[in-house]
Design a protein that fits this description.
Elements: H1 2-23, H2 29-47, H3 54-59, H4 63-74, H5 82-98, H6 105-108, H7 110-128, H8 131-136, H9 138-141, E1 145-146, E2 149-150, H10 151-176, H11 178-204, H12 215-230, H13 235-243, H14 246-277, H15 280-301, H16 310-318, E3 322-324, E4 327-329
Length: about 325
C-alpha cells in the first residue's frame, strides 16, 4: 500500500503533464496558466484536511494525535495501534538520545550518511538518464513526421503513456518491489537510448538515408518513456521518504531537492553544448551509458524497502557500512 500511495503523486504529476499537452495547443498561454492555478488552489485547500505523519507527531510529543493518525491510516480503532505507536516512540527516543543534528552529519555520521548518499545517487541517476531533457526537447528530437504522426501528435501520445504507465507502476510497486522496477527501468532506458543514438549516428556520420525508418527513434522514445515511468520516475521519490530517518528528513530533503535541480540544469546544459559542438547522437549514447551504470548502482547501493518499517530499513543500512568491489557487504 505504501508503494501504491507513494506512486500516486507521480500519477497526478503525469495527469498535469497530459493536461498541459492536451490544452496547450488549444488555449492561450494565459488561459493555460489560469487553469493550472485552479488545480494548485484545489491542492492547497486539500492540504488542510491532511493529517501529519505519526513520526512527526511523536517528535512533537503529540501522542494522542499520533494515535488518531495511526488508527485512521490503518482503518482500525485507536486501541489496536498501541504496539505500533510504542515502537515509533521507542525509535524516536533512541534517535534523539544519540546526538544533536547538524548538516555535516548527513555526510559524516554513519547513521545518516549511507541513506543520504543512496538517495543522492538515485537522484543523479534519474536526472542523468536524460528524461527531463528528452521531454523538454521532444519536438526537436523526434522526426517532424513519422508514419501518420507529426511531432505535436507524438507529444500528446507521450503524455498518455506517462499516465498509463504511472498507473501500472502504482499497481506493481508493492508487488515486485522497488529494485526490480528500477532494474527494468534501467534496462529499458539503456536499450531505447542506444537505439536513438544509433539512428542519429547513422543519419549524421554515415550520411545514411533513413527517411523510411523515421519510426525507429519515435518508437524508441515511446519505449524510453514507458521504461522511465515504470521505475526511475516514481521510485526515487518514494525511496527518499522511506529510507531517511525523521530527524534528518526535512534537512536532507531540502538539500536533495537543490541537488536534483542542479543535476537537471547541468544535464540540460551538457545536452545543448554537445548538440552544438559534437552531434545529437552523443547525447543519447551518454544517456544510454548512464542507464547501464544505473544497473550496477541499483544492484549495489540501493536497498529493497518493500514491506519494511523504518526501523528495519535503518537497521539494514547500519549493517551496510563497508564495501567490497562496489557493493555493500555486511559487517
Amino acid at each position: 500500500m505504501r508503494g501504491f500511495l507513494g506512486t500516486s503523486s507521480t500519477l497526478l504529476n503525469t495527469l498535469g503533464t497530459l493536461m498541459a499537452y492536451g490544452l496547450g495547443p488549444r488555449v492561450s498561454f494565459i488561459d493555460l496558466s489560469l487553469i493550472s492555478c485552479c488545480v494548485a488552489i484545489v491542492f492547497i485547500i486539500s492540504l488542510i484536511f491532511m493529517p501529519e505523519t505519526p513520526y512527526l507527531l511523536v517528535m512533537r510529543k503529540d501522542y494522542a494525535g499520533a494515535r488518531r493518525t495511526l488508527a485512521w491510516l490503518r482503518g482500525t480503532s485507536e486501541s489496536d495501534v498501541t504496539d505500533e505507536l510504542t515502537t515509533i516512540q521507542n525509535f524516536i527516543e533512541t534517535e534523539k538520545a544519540k546526538a544533536s543534528l547538524t548538516t555535516s552529519d548527513l555526510f559524516f555520521d554513519e547513521r545518516y550518511k549511507w541513506p543520504f548518499v543512496s538517495c543522492v545517487g538515485l537522484l543523479l541517476l534519474q536526472k542523468s538518464s536524460g528524461y527531463f531533457t528528452v521531454i523538454g526537447n521532444q519536438t526537436i528530437i523526434l522526426p517532424h513526421h513519422a508514419w501518420i504522426f507529426y511531432s505535436e501528435d507524438s507529444t500528446l501520445i507521450i503524455g498518455l503513456i506517462l499516465v498509463i504507465m504511472s498507473i501500472v507502476a502504482a499497481l506493481l510497486m508493492d508487488a515486485l518491489g522497488r529494485k526490480v522496477l528500477l532494474q527494468i527501468s534501467n534496462v529499458g532506458q539503456a536499450s531505447a537510448m542506444l537505439v536513438v543514438g544509433a539512428w542519429y549516428y547513422l543519419s549524421a556520420e554515415q550520411r545514411t538515408e533513413l527517411e523510411a525508418y523515421n519510426y525507429m527513434p519515435l518508437l524508441a522514445v515511446f519505449a524510453y518513456v514507458v521504461a522511465f515511468s515504470m521505475g526511475l520516475g516514481p521510485v526515487p521519490h518514494i525511496y527518499i521518504g522511506e529510507v531517511l530517518p525523521p530527524l534528518v528528513k526535512g534537512r536532507a530533503t531540502g538539500l536533495l531537492v537543490t541537488l536534483a535541480a542542479l543535476f537537471v540544469v547541468s544535464v540540460n546544459e551538457i545536452f545543448a553544448a554537445v548538440t552544438t559542438f559534437a552531434d545529437m547522437y552523443v547525447n543519447f549514447l551518454f544517456f544510454g551509458v548512464c542507464s547501464l551504470v544505473g544497473i550496477y548502482y541499483v544492484n549495489g547501493w540501493v536497498i529493497e524497502t518493500r514491506g519494511k518499517t523504518l526501523p528495519e530499513i535503518q537497521e539494514e543500512f547500519r549493517h551496510r557500512r563497508t564495501m567490497k568491489d562496489g557493493y555493500y557487504i555486511l559487517d
